[in-house]
Design brief:
By secondary structure, this protein is α+β, with helices and mostly antiparallel strands. About 45% of the residues lie in helices and about 20% in strands. The chain is built from twelve helices and twelve strands. Strands 4-5-6-12-11-10-9 form a seven-stranded antiparallel beta sheet. α1 packs parallel to α3 and α3 runs antiparallel to α4. It is elongated.
């Protein structure tokens, strides 16, 4: 009888704990959005002993993220290792583990996670390169080796105006389908981002046809696996002189005091504008540190 009472009491405590966890996690996420990470740790640490695997994963993941943002990378790493072991398919937790691994000297584990993320077909690498420290991470030869091996070439058709499987003149519904974008109000521009950075923009005319494409080469280079290729002689690494050799003399060239160079060419049905300028430091490998390098590609219907 005594054992039964003890079992019932233990079960009751476990149920109370489970009931308390859900509102605690919701509150912790609110605190996280407000960057009050020390309060997240104080709130969730009492739940570290929960037995349910999903509950345990949630607590470990939230605590690991909070400790990461508090600068306790070793403490975060220990929590995230267990969280990822419990739920290896949860990408965001793996991204934080990649970061703590890199920042605590476990570089090989960080490279392995980064390689798996890029190889999975991910198109937004913003967190993968910024959480471990963008400058150091992107300058790491091992990271660049992974990107060089697994990058995806985007062919830009400068004669007909095409990129990412769409082409100037196509109806909006077709462009949305090909890009995998949700349906938008007629005439609305479609945008793609990596983290907070615009990577491409697709605009439509009054008839609902694709009228212009803008590709942010530098953002694509830093935060995605995509690499632009405009011709055999012209790609994401090319300086202005290479563009002139590949495309001939532009119809106009404008230069500003801050090093921005804008060059325009016209083809039979499209106008091509290339914007060059100094890259944000540090310049990724393959780009000149003092520029100018290709920053933006614009294709418009003539």
């Amino acid at each position: 009888m005594h054992k039964l009472i003890m079992s019932v009491a233990w079960l009751s405590a476990a149920v109370v704990s489970a009931q308390q966890l859900e509102p605690a996690v919701e509150r912790a996420r609110e605190l996280g959005r407000e960057h009050r990470y020390a309060e997240v740790v104080e709130l969730l640490e009492p739940f570290l002993g929960v037995d349910d695997p999903e509950d345990r994963y949630i607590v470990m993941a939230e605590l690991g993220r909070a400790r990461f943002h508090l600068g306790d990378y070793a403490g975060a790493d220990a929590l995230l290792v267990e969280a990822v072991a419990l739920r290896p398919q949860r990408v965001e937790t793996a991204l934080y583990l990649e970061a703590t691994s890199y920042l605590t000297g476990k570089s090989e584990r960080a490279y392995a996670i980064f390689r798996e993320i890029v190889a999975s077909g991910a198109t937004d690498l913003y967190l993968a390169v910024t959480l471990p420290g963008e400058r150091r991470f992107l300058a790491d030869p091992a990271v660049q080796s992974i990107l060089d091996e697994l990058h995806r070439v985007v062919e830009v058709d400068i004669e007909t105006g095409g990129a990412f499987g769409v082409e100037i003149g196509q109806p909006q519904e077709e462009v949305e389908r090909r890009l995998g974008a949700p349906a938008a109000p007629p005439g609305s521009a479609l945008t793609a981002r990596a983290g907070p950075y615009l990577t491409s923009v697709y605009g439509f005319d009054e008839a609902g046809a694709l009228a212009h494409i803008m590709l942010h080469n530098e953002h694509l280079l830093r935060y995605t696996p995509f690499r632009l290729r405009l011709s055999d002689e012209l790609d994401w690494r090319s300086p202005p002189e290479s563009a002139t050799r590949a495309l001939g003399a532009p119809i106009s060239t404008a230069a500003s005091e801050d090093g921005i160079v804008v060059m325009v060419w016209e083809r039979e049905t499209v106008r091509l504008t290339l914007e060059f300028g100094p890259p944000r430091p540090p310049a990724p490998p393959g780009l000149a540190a003092d520029g100018p390098v290709l920053r933006v590609v614009r294709i418009e219907a003539r």
